[in-house]
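User: Second chain of the day. Same drill as before.
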Amino acid sequence: MPSTSVDKLLSEKRKLDGVDANSQKKKQKCSAISRTTALLDSEGKAEAKKIMQRVRSKLNRMPSTKHTTFIRSKIDMLDKDRKEMVGVFGKTGAGKSSLINAILGETKLLPSGNQGSCTSVMIQVEANMTNDKYIAEIEFITVQGEELSRKIACFTVSYSNSDTSEQLYWPLVKCLTIKVPNSEDLLEHVVLVDLPGNGDRNKSRDTMWKSFVGNCSAVWIVSDISRAISEKESWVILDSTVPFFGPGGECRSISYICTKTDDIEESQKDNAHSNICTRNEKTKEEVREIFNEQEDVKKHFSDAEGLFKVFTVSSKKYKMERQNEPDEKEMTEQWMNALNDTEIPHLQEFLRNLNDHRKRASDYISGADGILSLIQAARNSDMKYSKEVMRKDLELRLKDNLESIGQDMKKLHKVFDHCLSQGVKKSEDSDEKLMNEILEPEGISGSGYHKVVKCLCQNDGIYEPTRTSQTEKIDLNKHLAKYMLNDIAKIFTHYFSNDKSGPIKERIENFTLDTNSLYEKHKCLFLHLTFLETEKELKPELICYLLKKKKQTYNTLSESIKDSMRVSYENASMHTGNGYLQQMKDELHQHMKKANIFQKAKKDMLDGLTELKDHIAKEMKCKLQKSIEISLQTPNSSVLPGK
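Assistant: Same format as last time:
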């Protein structure tokens, strides 16, 4: 490639880094600044993509060698895109569909919940980055479910308030994905997911639900403003799902969104705007006060109050104002204020920030610059002695960094060992009490509870209530692990924080070979150092692995107990006849005593932390050593792209 390609990329990067900071003061103009910045990001990234496509095209016409294969893999890594997920929770009729429609500038993209029976299907809304078409993709529970749906269409549930023969297929559907044109630059790297509040009785859908919730970077709790304070359901949803998106997930933001703010009583309509604003501010204050009382939620975040936001929105008013939108030259401050009062633009800005166009574009351009530097460096003269000296410098720095990370991970292991040991002792001292809190709850007679215990045993310690049941979901395994979970709660939040960089994530983010300090000593190898400086894709990979392992680690205790108790659940479920309830209880109690379930759960969690330490060290050592080796080797110039 021409040497000017690097200069062009660096010029684009400087543009991204140098956007006028004072322009942020003009935020009110319908996020015009954000859109302009996003356009600039896209243009710079698009230019870098064109250059990388030309490099890739030349590579595809060349024989495969160690160097060409390595460069291809680096270009492929640039195009990998990890999307941020926003989970939207709320009961039927809360205004979720209208909210999503308004944010995306759509009218009837998602049907409102009052049009028929409620389903538990998860709905994903994401950008169609291929063309301007609207696409719906339906994922059925199994392939045979899809075939079955055609045969039993006449037997599926129909709309309760419809005279038509239109049918509901939701019992067979696992997930619905809707792809929309990306006209507002809101969803390029973001997915909105409309989620049921408490999982699903169907195992396939429940597994997907847990996966979605665990992958949410942000959570939106949606409630009608008239019920936001009095209604408990929204807070129940938050309390029951926080283990999945907090310590068992990666949520960095919780927003409570009060909808239908323009719905006011007839007597208040004479001074509607003032009354709406007053109610909005009062509701925000009261919602924040309620959140501050949610100790079981806040304990899972290092800065709970900082991550919690309240919005008061009117989808109807926003649509009306957009329909009356004047030309750009005629936009008045009054119209812009009216639009912002609906707070829909605030949520749109939230999504734009979550897209993080500038950082993604800057990272892509930086990575492309590194690839071009590697190609040019490999075509330079041999300089064998200089390369060997620099290799030793780099490998020594890599070794020191790995030892430092290893020491940090040993400290983590020691702290977790201590806290888990305390939890094990409490659990073993109170095991009978823990078990009886589920098997013999106060205020519930045995005659009416035997079916719950039976279902619990048949489902590996988990009872999923029916829609008409008065009993809430029960997870005996998680209940047995509660003392251990409580004792590691603080250190887990500290080491694996979502809202801030915990010690492990921070160590990965700050990991560096400090190539800048080597430029003076190795001036003739500046292109090699430029490539190594841009070797950043390993960090996102490791942070992604850290998040995945963090979720698994948090769930280790209850999963380990489930595994240890599985035999007793199976045996207990086989009991029938007179006195079978007591026989089931005895079976579970006896197995718990002899199976050493708490010690095993502790060991399994510590083993998971050891696996995390080993993986981080291995990946860093292998991949960075390979990058150092490739960058300092001099291949035959004929096997690399030419000018």
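Confidence is low (pLDDT under 50) at residues 19-33, 152-167.

User: Great, on to the next one.
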